[in-house]
């Protein structure tokens, strides 16, 4: 998955050891797993050459990072001009998210 | 590495099978390797759940993707509050780039 961070989310990520992002759509701090329960425990933090991209290696709770119920958000691969789904839905999102 | 694409760069990437990005700093199409010679031959293209991020799996020319002369831009890992360089410089950037 790819998500955004700001200074606050990065600080909390490093302090707690759990991935925290900045939700641009909700305009607030996003503690990964706060709704789904599928937290990310941080194992390694890398930064790129110009220090504006971070890679977190994580232990993914529930083996589900994607809101579609899949392990990865990158579950579609391009083949002959078509996007082919390669990764299965592990859990129905309706069972993951219980919004009122 | 992480870079930006626009419609034109993605189209050329798919047509040529070589990674093409959009350079925001230079404000123009960036054919990866056009200066360094270290092209990226695309092996797989994946897209994420909301279709705004692409992962290219590539065969990296010269085994150098980073302008610092390293394989990866993500050559620093966080250890005890310090960024530690883990990956070696394969080739001196001065030997890679021959700007006038």
Write the layout of secondary structure elements.
Two copies of one chain form a homodimer.
Chain A: H1 7-16, E1 20-23, E2 28-31, E3 40-47, E4 54-60, E5 76-79, E6 82-85, H2 93-96
Antiparallel strand pairs in A: 1-2, 3-4, 5-6
Describe the 3D structure:
Chain A is of the alpha+beta class. Chain A has one domain (7-96): Phosphoribosyl-AMP cyclohydrolase (Ubiquitin-like (UB roll)). Chain A is 14% helix and 31% strand. Chain A has two helices and six strands; from the N terminus they run αββββββα. Chain A has helices at 7-16, 93-96; strands at residues 20-23, 28-31, 40-47, 54-60, 76-79, 82-85. A two-stranded antiparallel ribbon of chain A has the order 1-2. A two-stranded antiparallel ribbon of chain A has the order 3-4. In chain A, a hairpin with a 6-residue loop joins strand 3 and strand 4 (54-60). The radius of gyration of chain A is 15 Å and the shape is globular. The two termini of chain A are 26 Å apart. The model of chain A has no long low-confidence stretch (mean pLDDT 95). The A-B interface holds A 1-2, 14, 44-50, 53, 55, 66-68, 70, 73-78, 83 and B 1-2, 14, 44-50, 53, 55, 66-68, 70, 73-78, 83. Strand 5 of chain A pairs antiparallel with strand 3 (40-47) of chain B.
Task: List its salient traits.
two-stranded antiparallel ribbon; homodimer; Ubiquitin-like (UB roll); 6 strands; 100 residues; alpha+beta
């Amino acid at each position: 998955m790819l998500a955004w961070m700001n200074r606050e989310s990065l600080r909390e990520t490093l302090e707690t050891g759990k991935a925290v992002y900045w939700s641009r759509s909700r305009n607030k701090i996003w503690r990964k797993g706060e709704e789904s329960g599928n937290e990310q425990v941080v194992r390694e933090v890398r930064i790129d050459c110009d220090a504006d991209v971070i890679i977190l290696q994580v232990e993914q709770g529930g083996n589900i990072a994607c809101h579609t119920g899949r392990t990865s958000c990158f579950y579609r691969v391009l083949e002959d001009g078509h996007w082919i789904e390669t990764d299965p839905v592990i859990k129905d999102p309706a069972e993951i998210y219980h919004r009122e």
